[in-house]
Structure formats: C-alpha cells, structure tokens
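ok trying this again, last paste got cut off
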Amino acid sequence: MPAATLTTAWEDLEVPAHARGGQVTLNLCDHLASYLPKRPGAYLRISSDRFALKAGVDRQLEDAETSRTRLCWGPFAKVYRENDTSAFKKRKITKPDGTIDWVVLRPEFRQLLADLALGVIDGVIFYDLDRLVRQPRDLEDLIDIVEYVKRPVTGATGGRMNLINDSDRHMARMMCVMALKSSEDTARRVARQHLSAAQNGQVQGRIAYGWVRK
C-alpha cells in the first residue's frame, strides 16, 4: 500500500518516528477510533437460509445502516453478503504447491480483508462478532490487517466493539473462542442425535425423490 494512504491516520497527532509502522504500543485508540470512514464496507452473514429468502441479512443491513448513520460514516462503498454460509465448518483444500489445509471457505469475507488492506474500503461495520467470525484463525487475519491499516472495524450490536482498540481485540479473541466451543458443542449433540436415530432405524436427512416420510 502506498505510504500516503497510511499517513492520514496520524494527522494532527505527534507520534515518534520510531513508532510509526512498528510494534510499539501507544495510547492511540481514542484518536484512531475517531476516524470517520468515507467509504466503509458492511459485512453480513447468516449460517442457514434453506429457502434463500435473505431476510436475515436484510435485517442485518438495516441495523448496519443505523450504526453507520449514528457514527456519521460515509455511505457504504461495498456490502459483503454471505447468506446461508457457515463460519465454522472447515473444508479440505489443496494449495497450488500441493500442500493440504483445512479452512473455512468464505469468499466475501476474504474479499473484505483484501479490500480493507488495499484501501478499497476504509472501515467496516459488521452485524455482530459471531456473524463475523467463528474461527480464531479468521479473526487473527482480520486483526493483522486492522493493526496495519489502522482503520475502524466495529460491530452494530452488543457493546459495539471496535477492533482498532486493543482491549476490544482481546475481548473479541475470548468471545471467538467461546463461539467456537458453542459451535463444536452443537455439532457434537447433532451428530449424537443422528447416530441414535440411525441405530433405531429412523431415516436421516432429506427424503429421497419418490419417497414420503411416515
């Protein structure tokens, strides 16, 4: 990213030269959080939408717009919608070099990270942390970019945490781990229920074409 696009976060603030772009911790949160994005992005996600009604993400957008107006941010430059998309389930992928990894496939979330890093958007409003991330790896990828570009990434609900604030980042990490445990607990209970039903001869999943459930 060109240096000129990074220096705007430091306007009207005296920062030692050795601290710019480094890992020195300074009490800059209030100044950085006061930055008003002119071209923010909105991230919306719902895990399950079987009938593709998109009502859930539409409601999230309404709340994100309310937060954007309250914060006096500019109009949304991009809206990242991931309808009927899990932030928990991993898939096995093979990288171009032949190595294998297990990741959550969320193209819109990855596009948001790229756009924030490149300056396409200069801030993010997400609906709620558990809509934003469920895997610590995804959260850390976002935090790395926030620490680099120094732009606000804030929630529309709850305590409206802002990841530009170091204390909110640590809180987000703890909440993400708890959300991950909740997802794993649910997956375990559902798997056990399906096993019990199968052992009792009950049909699982969707009914095959031409059959009816009795």
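PB: full thing came through this time. Confidence is low (pLDDT under 50) at residues 1-13.
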